[in-house]
Amino acid sequence: MIEAHGVGGQADLPIPLSLAVGGASAALVVSFVVLATAWRSSRYQGPQAPAGRPLPATASRLLLSHSSRIVLRVVGMAAFVLAAAAALFGQDSLTNPFFGMVYVWWWVGLPFASVLFGPVWKAISPVRTIHAGLARVTGGDPARGVLEYPARLGMWPAAIGLFAFVWLELVYDNSSQLGDVRLWCVTYLAIMLVGGAVFGSGFYEKADPFEVFSTLAARISPWRTEQTATSRPRIVLCSPLANLAATPATAGLTAVMAVLFGSTAFDSFGKSEWWLRTIYGSSLSANVLNNIALIVFCVGAGVVFAAGCVLTRAAKDVRRARLPDLFAHSLVPIIVAYFVAHYLTLFVDYGLQTLSLVSDPFGKGWDLFGTAGVAPTFWFSYHPTFLATLKVLAVVVGHVAAAVAAHDRALQVLPSTHRITGQLPLLITMVGFTAGGLMLLFSA
């Protein structure tokens, strides 16, 4: 299972590479031209922003009720207990469902679920549940900690946590050893609980790598929760791009995006024929080279994107150094698109295999949930043309959506005399990301 994780693409996908790269890049340029001529003022910020359509009051009350929150917390804790039991008492082999729950359900399934349903991890997070339980036992308020969370830290702790996970997943030699993965998860849990005790539950919004990732993915979901005049929250059906535009420009947001984008790109690069030849022909170990390459991809993605932003001319009331974080939200559609292109087959096939394995967490021949007979169909493997088309379409749609989000933000933060020409460096960056991403996808 783990050897199959992170497959970046297939060398025999039945779409010519030159056609995919050229077509995607052309679509991005054409969309920019259309936006520049037809989209003259911001549509997702200010008075012109669409308000959205509220769900019926009964549906909002039911979904946001205290009982619904408790049910979601119970589901999250049940999955946590099952994963912990498998990690502690299960077999040290790839038939242990713990690996699939971590690498497939948690890492890949979480952003997919968040795009469909909203910030899933915040709703079911066992870390938040345990933190709230400990606060109740000690008589404290889970929302308050000993110290205030420093605003200058922003999302940097989440970026570091995400890098630690992709390092474990992609380059660590023992990523399929039960003890090592278990140790990583225990360390994550300990850091989160200590951070929550020191800074309160608000710590998780910026420092929990999985909550930050889930919340960002949820920014392109069609749902958002908002307060009404009566202070009663309600769920609103809205444009995903309008939801995305409301992403706060928090410090460290660009670093989070760089890790997510760079690690996914490295996942394909690490399986390319050129890189495999380089590894086996080098005097350095494969582990050292992969570690260096992962860092280069993550840092490089952040530097290239930041350069494309700061080369523009910001308005007088906007510091140029803030531009990367102001535009970083536009990378969310690209990251989700690349997760679809890179990990869809993994999630479908090995997610089903994990569903089968969870019925027998200790390798005793049990069928606790009646899913032991579930088996992957490998449907996508038998329909390569559809798979190739879906992957290219996901990348193109993601980049066009990113161009729309970036253009709308540019109309707010760039001076009126440079609202078009000022976007050219960022457009070149987007075209480079599109072409490079598709080349990596097809070379893996």
Protein traits:
444 residues, mainly alpha, 3-stranded antiparallel beta sheet, 3 strands, 3% strand
General description of the model:
It is a single chain. 63% of the residues lie in helices and 3% in strands. The protein has 444 residues and is an all-alpha fold. The protein has one domain (2-443). The protein has a 3-stranded antiparallel sheet, covered by helices on one side. Helix 1 packs parallel to helix 17, helix 7 (156-170) packs across helix 10 (209-217) and helix 12 crosses helix 14 (286-310). It starts with 16 loop residues before the first helix and ends with a helix.
Q: How would you concisely characterize the structure shown here?
A:
Keywords: Membrane, Transmembrane, Transmembrane helix. The chain crosses the membrane at residues 15-39, 70-90, 102-121, 153-172, 184-204, 241-266, 292-314, 326-348, 386-404, 424-442. The chain is mainly alpha-helical and 444 residues long.
